[in-house]
Amino acid sequence: MYKQKSKAKNRRLSARNYAVNSQPNSKIKLFNLAIKRLSPSWQACLPLACLIVLGWGYAAVAQTPAAAPTTAELKVALDTLWVAIAAFLVFFMNAGFCMLETGFCRQKNAVNVLSKNLIVFALSSVAFWVIGFALMFGDGNDFIGLNGFFLGGADNSPTTGDSYKGIFGAISWAGVPLAAKFLFQLVFAGTAATIVSGAVAERIKFVSFLIFSLLLVGILYPITGHWIWGTGWLADRGFWDFAGSTVVHSVGGWAALMGAAFLGPRLGRYQDKQVVAMPGHNMSIATLGCLILWLGWFGFNPGSVMAADPSAISHIAVTTNMAGAAGGISATITAWLYLGKPDLSMIINGILAGLVGITASCAYVGIPASLVIGLIAGVLVVFSVTFFDKLGIDDPVGATSVHLVCGIWGTLAVGLWAVGPGVYSWYGDTLGPAKGLFAGGGFGQFGVQLLGVVSVGGFTVLLSSIFWLALKATLGIRVSKEEELEGLDIGEHGMEAYSGFLKEGDATGFSGEESSIGRY
Fold first, then answer.
1. If we measure between CA atoms, which residue out of 29, 52, 5, 198 comes closest to residue 120?
2. How far are the Cα atoms of 205, 265, 433 from residue 471, in angstroms, in the given order?
3. What pTM was computed for the model?
4. Number of Cβ within a 10 Å radius of residue 270
5. Which positions of the chain have pLDDT values less than 70?
6. Which burial class, exposed, middle or buried, applies to 512 when counting CB atoms under 10 A from its CB (0-12, 13-18, 19+)?
7. From CA 98, how far away is CA 114, in angstroms rounded?
8. Residue 490, CB half-sphere, CA atoms under 13 Å: how many?
């Protein structure tokens, strides 16, 4: 009995051991069967795959861990990233100018306006690389830079301060690579040239505008910019313009004013000593252009820190936005009371006026002051538009009112509301403007700001007048009467923006064909 039980027990154990031992064998058989079912090509790849896996494993074990980036390297990377993003935002403002100016002009000139705004940045890129950046930031004297043409010469950016060894000492405070500095300054230069486009729209020769843009970006803009941002004579006297109310906007505005004056008004603009309205053909895209420009200003002003400083960027973004909002509100109310209706074009220009007005002081004033600066800019732009109309200066988009008048106002506002050095962390105790008049600092800073406005304005008027007169005497600057009546799209470009749509036949009415269609 015992033997029988032992035999039965041994059989159960043997069966269990067989089952356990047979499992690996069955898996191997299944694996071999699966391999045999593969095509010969796939079977040939299996040894190579095994070698790759073994090689990766060896490389992972043998590789020495890379050293982590230092804090200084991370700061340079973050600063460069922010400067690049800000430059891209400012570049996108070209789309805003395209939409705004095209919408404010008549449809028969839409292609011409778009073409000017598109090509002007391409020309600015080349001109600023060849000569402009060197004249503006290259080492030289208090009047002009003399080194760094074609962006060449000694430079060890992003090193800053006493460790910097190069020829662009004026901008050595920015701890980013030289290419990032150039890109950011380039988009500013392109903005100055674009300002002129709107004021001379609908009657200027395309080639004359292109040549003037090259002269502006390559020579005029960099020289006055050197005085202020290139540690020139105005900077030595304590003139401050954080993001360009004078350097960019006023310079572009003065050049635009002289261009509009030398060109004369559009045909039909003034009849019997009365100003004849020539409304824009598409206020929808003009409004879109305003919103794009508003967005771009968050690169224009906060980007001028040229460092990823969270306190500075956030403060400047808020002051910028508050001034733009206040400008739109005050322009709406002013137009409503002064003109009888809340004119959309005035609302648009009021927002832009507030943004231009805060550009010089956005880093130096508090939020309440930015609100007041924007409010005053919005009022100024409404009265300025009608003032230039009465003078016979025909500016189809109001560029001189927005950029020149409010650029001057924004520059002077530094001398009124600047809080003084040592208040904000983003500039040291010895940097930044002195206290403004309303901050208890007296008229000292205001006087320096006024000196800058007058000197930059006088030089820009002189040089831009020379450029315009030279072009007028050689190539001519205005299209023929026939081309202007037909539209610059056909006369200058041989195409239409809205092919197949009705278009104006002259400055004051419609062609006979369109009139007959209208009767039906």
1. 198
2. 10, 18, 40
3. 0.84
4. 15
5. 1-66, 428-430, 501-520
6. exposed
7. 6
8. 14
